[in-house]
Request: fold
Amino acid sequence: MRLLSFYQERSLRVVRAQGQYVWDEHGRRYLDLHIGHGVAFLGHRHPKVVEALKNQMDEIMTLSTAFQTRAREEMLKELENVRPEGMENVFLLNSGTEAVELSLKVARKVTGRRKFVAFRNSFHGRTVGALSVTWNRKYREPFEPLLEPVEFLPFNNVDALKAIDETVAAVIVEPVQGEGGVVPATDEFMKTLREVTRSKGALLIADEVQTGWRTGKIWAHQHFNVNPDMVTAGKAIGGGFPVSAVFLPDWIRERLDEGDHGTTYGGNPLAAAAVAASCRVLKEEGVVEKAELMGREFLRALSPLKERRIVREVRGLGLMVGIDLKVNPGPAIKTMQDEGVLALKAGTTVVRFLPPYVITKEDVEFAVATTNKGISTAESKVSAN
Ligand SMILES: *Cc1c(COP(=O)(O)O)cnc(C)c1O
Reply:
């Protein structure tokens, strides 16, 4: 039996994980800046998350959200401190793409309009709705026709926002583009986007599945002082447990009816316990402040790499960091893995780091030294050609 995986095989068998590290079957330790596509942002197996899940398993593991549970009550209480401003309601799902699907459905229902606007180099997921607003043609084309109409505008281009008119149900944006190459939005772009969508009656969806919790604010849109109409979250919010969410305000909730959406697993007691525990960690351990601090440290330590011949740019926000190369980043990422650091690719040219907030200065130094070696490998490939 073979597992069908559409990710490139990394040839590494992991037997244990704790905090910012994983170990292979030979006992070798790796600094994990991949953390399962950014999921283990609180560190692998955070003790408070593990304890909450174990306790929850002893109580009840599965139940429809049609019933009340202690887990649900505690999650809602903890989310009070975490929810985006003005968003009194949350719907729980299981993956980022499902959260995006719901936000698109809600936008159509609430506005009575059909069209969506997204941005070049966006990534919002792989199910049909989310895929329709994802930029990469290679991901989309074999599955067309997808949702229509969708228009892609250039990211961070304020003038292009003029194309948003009264036919648009929603504009969906990542405050920092993740898969597309770790590209933070500019302040002017996000502020103008908020003004234009408001004046045209289009909803603004902030897709924070990747940016949530790790950029030095709880939500990355807070960097720009704009309040979106809906926020999608995923990856980090379950502390390693698969769970996602859509946050929305009362005025939107009032226009939704029974049957508009549903999910078998969404908001199950284990997910609720994981979210509650993760929110407690966020508050009690100063996670957001540490992400800000270590993110700045990481960027500072990486910045000398700008001098390397094949490096175009080093950029990021909080603990979401990318090195844009002039070449394919694959060989660099491979060398880094051989040297004990796990990173990810983003776009076609970017080495991406999604470090857990528990990384130390020593980890950062090790990561930078290793990245230097990785870049040397990538450079030698260029010279050989
Ligand atoms: C990862 C990601 C998704 C999709 O999340 P899945 O859990 O893989 O479905 C959606 N939007 C953004 C911005 C993401 O980074």
About this structure: The chain has a mean pLDDT of 97.
